Amino acid sequence: MEENIKRLKETIENSNNIVFFGGAGVSTESGVPDFRSVDGLYNQKYKYPPETILSHTFFRTKTREFFEFYRDKMLFPDVKPNKAHYALAKLEKEGKLKAVVTQNIDGLHQAAGSKVVYELHGSVHRNYCEKCGKFYDFDYVYNSTGIPECECGGIIKPDVVLYEEGLNQEILNNSVRAIANADVLIIGGTSLAVYPAAGLIDYYKGNKLVLINKSTTARDCYADIVINQPIGEVLGQVVDL
């Protein structure tokens, strides 16, 4: 394993066109639970399955219950970036990393200092009135009770992609372009099980594919470097913080 970390360090040092594609595992070291692990969100017991609660239909038909779950299980006001977030932000500042493509909605990449972040599934830090379009921040929704409403009377909807909703086309296009043009693609903290997001890596044309994840993935056999360790630990070793 040490040999692979050494190879990753050399790969990063020799490239100025890196793109990072990440999932929930990037934020678990910050205390944000993932979805599919033993202790993940989808293995907890609720009145409804989390996949049902986090759907467009449920949001429309049981809005109050949606927000009870959303505040309790999706919002983490005290979490901070970890070594993975800071390492990626540093690589961007050094001109090596061109973009972060993330499935996460927690905003921790930006909190660590990353500027070019394509959030495939949106962000808990952006909320909009469905009636007038007024913007509301994280704190407003987190501190609200019941169904958060705008001063105009409209319902405030988090700018997160729910089940049954499509991805933002502009963000999708930017993500595809960044991945397709990358010399090095580092994939971290994701089981590559969520589509269409996971399908984006098929646009990568290079031969320096790096997979960093605690468990194996279906794409390990295609990677040049595979490291089965927590991504914060790995990037903390590879990038001088």
Automatic annotation (TrEMBL):
Domain of life: Bacteria
Keyword GTP-binding found: no
Binding of NAD(+), residues: A24, T28, F35, R36, Q103, I105, D106, H121, T190, S191, N213, I231
Listed EC numbers: 2.3.1.286
Main localization, broad class: cytoplasm
KW Chaperone (keyword) present: no
InterPro entries xref list: DHS-like_NAD/FAD-binding_dom, NAD-dep_sirtuin_deacylases, Sirtuin, Sirtuin_cat_small_dom_sf, Sirtuin_class_U, Ssirtuin_cat_dom
Active site: H121
Enzyme class: transferase
Keywords in alphabetical order: Cytoplasm, Metal-binding, NAD, Transferase, Zinc
HAMAP family from the UniProt entry: Sirtuin_ClassU
Name by which UniProt lists this protein: NAD-dependent protein deacetylase
Organism listed in the record: Eubacterium segne
Gene: cobB
